[in-house]
Amino acid sequence: MKIAFYGSSLLSSWWNGAATYYRGLLRNLAARGHDISFYEPDAYERQQHRDMDPPEWARSVVYPATADGLRSVLAEAGKADVVVKASGVGIFDDELIAGIVEHAAPHALKIFWDVDAAATLEEMRAEADHPVRRALSSLDLVLTYGGGPPVVQTYEGFGARACMPVYNALDPTTHHPVEPDPRFTADLSFLGNRLPDREARVEQFFLEPAARLSERKFLMGGNGWESKQLPPNVRHLGHVFTHEHNAFNCTPLAVLNVARDSMADIGFSPATRVFEAAGAAACLITDAWEGIELFLKPDEEVLLARDGQDVAEHVRELTPERARAIGQAALRRVLNEHAYAHRGAEVDALLKREMASRLNEVAA
Fold first, then answer.
1. Are residue 103 and residue 187 in the same domain, yes or no?
2. Are residues 331 and 346 in the same domain?
3. Which residues on neighbouring strands pair with residue 256, listed in sequence order?
4. DSSP helix, strand, coil percent of the chain (3-state; round to 5)
């Protein structure tokens, strides 16, 4: 099928945490024979901070962040069998969701792919006239980055015909074990951009343990932390490009995942970083959230922390031997159950099933 995908960016992970999610899924769908065009606006300096060239497996279209640029790419929606609008493009989000409904061909599947369902649903609760809420009755599917049963029930309660989580996963062609790199030496590392609904949890789960363990080395990657007052034993790297992820994950004793407030509250929302770290055989410590056991087994494949004190205790007690054992167990688990090959198979089967049903509707 021809898939027109309107998202934030395929080529750049700059202030764009969904980049590796898009890449892993769409690469796998392309390998299954789908013809993919990805449309991204030239905005937020993402094109100046690319960490990927246009791939062979997708047609990359970067359009000017103008009304004319928007019209030019929406005009191409009518050529596709599947038209996808992802959340969080950051510019023209309202126009894009209305545009795919207007411009999609009669036979085409129209999909809203929510990569931040908790935030979107919060907005929809507050705004009866929210653009996504208005569009639901005209869409065939809502797919989400995570959220499990709570998100599915809420979306369907708002009128979605069907909603299915397509969880983050591992792309073993890009995220895998490598040799350690001295640049990333630390006892505990954290990678994530500074966001309002993440900052307090990063303080609790990362900066407080660093202050408790002043003799240990902590490493922080991600945008926005430059102006944050950090403990003396925390080193900030700034943006970590995708090609550096493996060394960033493989080198330290352990890697920390911290969910954003909304994702922690709703559960069933493993971040991309969870699978990227596991794919590099890193020893992962994560803040506890409902549903983690569906992805990694606590104490054997991942270490759970209820608060900063738990994080500090894990770091204090962790030996290199136990860290390696946990990392290797996590790697085996994600390769066997949580690679993008598994997610791609799910989406491929779903698209074929929905397209067959859609064609029957059109014929009738």
1. no
2. no
3. 190, 285
4. 45, 20, 35
